[in-house]
Design a protein that fits this description.
Rossmann fold; 5 domains; flat; Hect, E3 ligase catalytic domain fold; alpha/beta; 15% strand
Amino acid sequence: MARKTIKEQPLKFIIYARKSTESADRQVASLDAQLEVVRDIAKQNNYKVVKTFRESASAHKVHNRPKFDEMVKMIEDGKANAILCWHTNRLARNPLENGIIQQLLIEHKIQVIHTNDRIYRPEDCAILFSVEADMNTEYSMKLSKDVRRGVRFKNRQGKHNCMAPQGYLNSRDKDNQPIIIPDPERFPIIKSAFRMYLTGNYSVPEVLSYLNNDCHYLTKKRKKIGGRPLGLTSLHSMFENPFYMGKVRDFDDPTIFHDGAWEPMITEDQYWRIQRMKNKYSLEHNLRPKVAVNAKNFELKGIMTCSSCGCSIIGEQQKKLLKDGTVNEHLYYRCTHKSKLRKCTLRGGIPEEEAFKQIYELLDSYTIHPLLYEWSMQMLKKIHAREIEERYDRAEMQHTSLEECEKERSRLLDMSLRGMVDDDLFETKDRQLRERIERIKEVSKDAQERNKNWYEVIGKTLETLRSPKEKMEAAETAGERRAILQAIGPEAKLVERKVGTYKNGRDLTKKFIEVKPYPWLEKLAKNAKKIAPEIDKGFNRDLQGENDRKSALYSEWWGLQGLNL
């Protein structure tokens, strides 16, 4: 049909071309073909094109297309007001993004959508565009259901819907139908690996070593993957894959298997023997009891990091044979030395007894006296109440500023529609107002994040520090112990300090566990030491009947606090 010429000015077009991620032979039109048509339309109508977007992504999923989002952002910012595309189904195939385009069209932010066979304008095509958009969405939903139905049917016919696994190849028969055949190069090697594991004399890593080192096995080279030695996880997956016994799991019920249409590598009996040997099937079906592993429990493993390279501190058991024939066992904690970015200077480790001793000393220095805990909670409540009032005042002020900006934008738009402000000045002022609105919103959001649950967090910290040593002794997991140390500071580090010098001039060093305390907690602990003698004295005499003295101590405690919580 003859293409129409649009006279609206000024129009700033965006060219948008999209195809899904399917192969090219299944597309409505390739990207190059789409661009050739729409560029011809732009040339015939003398359209000003400000940006061209090419995208290979499905429009069925929401927020799956970064180029589409960028195009919408340009239109909302006023940098473009028209779209050139092959068909409306190139723009969207889901209700949410269809609605975005429709709303921009209704609001006149999109003046024109020009496709290969139709022109859409805000004033005369809102209903037509809406109908076509719904048809695009319905087509996408129907296509998805049809694909799933086809996959389910093929699955129950014993056909494999994915790429052939290691040892097999995808091929086609004389009728050009897809089939799976043994890979003449890799099939016998993989089969020998299954037989090797079935003997029960080799572990999975040993079988992997045989494949990669002895057989020099390389995976099938494909477009972007393959051509590399087999990985341990891949070999575990192969041993658990029912494909090799000639069966495929049901699409809906994984406990049901269908006979496949390819040559099996192992028998069904051999497959289940492998599952029992790998302990997975036996644990799930209680075929044999779980064997207890005699592993040493390293209580401080994972709660510290290395101060030199940042790696984790792990536990290590060392045994030494004594002259009397007995074995002396020692537990140490040392750095893993696994950092590829930093050279670790921390050598040796710290004995577990010394580590616990230092941790308990650290906890003692920050333990909160019961009376100070009571006063601290009273103080937090007062600060919290005062902050609520301040937060309300700030929120009210920010709301007023936002209203003023919105009113100013409305006045600016009204002046632009009356021709009192030219386009360049309008865009400049409007951009400045939008940036100001965004800054106000960001400041408000940051304030909310900073204040979020701070009262509960600090209260929980103080509760932990009431009796941290007892809590550390009662902790059953490394996570619980780490949380107790994190009540003092965000991270515990193992550091090495010089403590002396040997006779030969070498430095004598020692390992220390250090935690940088939170500033407010450090100040609280420092202030507590100043009034600790008075508190102990008051508790020895029992503060009942000495309310004046108790009030004086509280006033002194409150006066010492200059905390910016």
